[in-house]
Amino acid sequence: MLNNLADWKEIWAQAPAEGIALAMWRLPNQIQQVLLQDVRGGVRTDSDQLEHLGPGFLVGPFVGQPYFLQASSLLYKSMSTQTLNKPLQNSSKEDIAQKNLFKAQVAQSVVQIKQGQFQKVVLSRIDLQELAADFDLCDAFERLCQMYPTAFVAAIYLPELQNVWLCATPETLVSQDSEGIFRTISLAGTQSGLDAAGNLLSPSEARWSQKEIEEQAYVSRYIIECFKKIRLREYIENGPKTVLAGNLMHLKTEYSVDTLTQNYPGLITQMLGLLHPTSAVCGTPKEAALYWILQTEKHDRSLYSGYLGPINLASETHLFVNLRTVQISGNQACYFAGCGITEDSDPEKEWQETQMKCQTLQRVINASL
Ligand SMILES: C=C(O[C@@H]1C=C(C(=O)O)C=C[C@H]1O)C(=O)O
């Protein structure tokens, strides 16, 4: 039947030798997990028309053409009901050299903003850690599904990249359901969702500063500008409101469009092309922010802050921003996290924010020790 955890582990173990591309995911608020195998190994596509690609899984890098994984086979199983009984621990260490470098980059970005080069930029950094000898990808995926029920949890393997990515992201980039409802969100502004004792706070306890409200408004304005470019006026806007995303809280505004009554059949393809990379992961204006990111960051973002998700499956498409994500090569884990910088940014606070974002995955992955 190939639908229990042991079978899925076997498929993951065999994939590199067989040159098969894999994607395994669990949509937000669902219990069903899906494992897709592409015997062709996944191919680069121009994604001109998502609708024409057929059923599969799309993986777009921060910059460049996406990979399309065709659904050669699909396996389904339910999330394990076994509860996590190991304590979660925050294991991120502070590397002083990394911290100083990042804080200097944030300070330089603030200077650029004050000089009028751009208004907002999202800078990221990496945190390299060794995985425990008994780390198991499928177990970590299960734990993330249990810990973060509202996240999109996914793991992918692409033979061309020779590494695995695992994420638990709170951010929808674009989606369209079987009734033709298109959705996107504006997500930004970050604060801890835990109190000093590590208990979850309620969203009503969040207090947002002007800086964070402004930071999220850039993303909302950017989305509305994209709608304007295609002369779409009939959209529903809901928010901003505070949402919990794992150990963090963000400000979120939801946008939806009824593509059937509005007669917009290609909206999702058009919006994907216009939106990515949004002001939530790149900045405003996009070109100047992107130029600064590529000049400043010392690492290659690769698939971090790109997008991924199932397309054309059961007449639905759900693409998410690849955040709260880790790239795994052998026993090396490379965690990625970024933060939105505006003219009011404080380098120390921005560093702390990236630490909290890395911990979203680290506290769960390291709990399997
Ligand atoms: C860039 C990241 O997150 C994005 C940036 C946020 C912010 O700047 O506050 C919040 C949510 C995401 O849209 C990340 O998690 O790496």
Automatic annotation (TrEMBL):
Q: Where is the Chorismate-utilising enzyme C-terminal domain?
A: 100-357
Checking InterPro entries in the record gives: ADC_synthase, Chorismate_C
What SUPFAM superfamilies does this protein's entry cite? ADC synthase
- Gene3D superfamilies named among the record's database cross-references: Anthranilate synthase
| Protein name listed in UniProt | Chorismate-binding protein
